[in-house]
Amino acid sequence: MQNARTFHPSEGAGRLGRFRLSLLLASAVFAGAVPAGAQSLTDQPPGAAVSPDAVKQREKELEAVRQEQQNALAAQQKIKADIAAIGEDRAKLNQRVIEIASQVRTVEGNISDAEGRLRTLDQREDQLRGSLTSRRSEVVEVLAALQRAGRRSPPALLIRPDDALQSLRTAMLFGAVVPDLRARAERLATDLGELVALRKSINEEHDRLAIARDSLKSDQVQLAALIEQRQRKQAVMEKDMEAEGARAVAFAKQIDDLQGLISKMEQDVRSAARAAASATLQGAPAPPSGKPDLAALRNPGRQSPAIAFASAKGMFSFPVNGTKIHDFGASDGAGGIEKGISLAARAGAQVTTPCDGWVVYAGPFRSYGQLLILNAGGGYHVLIAGMERISVNIGQFVQTGEPVATMGSTSQVASILAANAGQPVLYVEFRKDGTPIDPGPWWAANEGEKVRG
Fold this sequence. Notes:
Elements: H1 9-15, H2 17-31, H3 52-86, H4 90-134, H5 136-151, H6 161-237, H7 241-254, H8 258-268, H9 270-282, E1 322-326, E2 341-345, E3 350-352, E4 357-364, E5 370-377, E6 380-387, E7 389-390, E8 397-398, E9 403-406, E10 425-432, E11 435-437
Antiparallel strand pairs: 1-2, 2-10, 3-9, 4-5, 4-8, 5-6, 6-10, 7-9, 10-11
């Protein structure tokens, strides 16, 4: 028969040492302790001596500012060199504009993804902190018990009978208590360990987010310069562009409905009428095989659609990175139905055209805020509204993926303002021969199916 294993108090104390140490170390995180020397110069009380560490920190901050200024200057010089290299080649300029716009939208998507991951991590951290806060008394109790266990001496081998009996009783009592104490310590150590790991993950996510935002800022500066150059070249071709734009806005104030605006523009405004005529004459016909020629999209110098609108079903990407909040045919909350879709977007997000087409209107219109209307040929029109700023002009031909506008910081469309006042929302509507149609069949199901400029 095997001998029963006896329990010794020193064994119990040693076995719990790891839990006590992990709890003591992690409790600093739980308490939100601030490392020494983390205060900045501005946190110092008036008249207090500035520590050498604070001076070094301030020098690092100034050096970072100087480095940022140098980087900005280098970026400006690179942009100028890029534009100079493009020269008068309109095709190269279009290609570069579309490439940078695509980069901007990719980074915007990465930022949104990172922010989503951060929200999930922050929620889990809040849950853990709330749980630990509600068990603060348990944390204190377990730490105190572990500290007492660590200080308790084992019973002596040569002692008086009374002392031996007391030691035996203590050992028996401790043996009954230790399993429960150990389980509680393990639970707390696990939660605190997860909290430490979460905080590390959150810090790493913040670092990635900061890098993405820096990249976005750089790309946006470059894109703004390229768009300005593009529009400058457009202005050279269209001498009376400013007068045409003013005339179009004046017409818009006299018209109540979208179809009336489209008809008026394509009949009475010279640049819009020319664009409409080009759409009629040069609109890409459907290919005999029924399959669109995607290679035609790689021609940055084209002046007419590479793919017929009717043949491009399942190939378009949304004009802005965002979440669909209203769908075609749904109730508009005022007794009618939605004639297009609405996308909740990021403030300042880049808006690109989903297809090739000619601009027949660009400017404010009624409750739509800034409105852009493209004639895509074949009797199709694409209406995009809710932007803060439009960067193309009436009569201009734009290619798939080309940047055409920028979102603001709040909703600009009156019909969706009440429910989404604090978030920019883009409204998109497709029309065929003047009638709104469901744009659903044209949107790509996944990233690999989207047409690219």
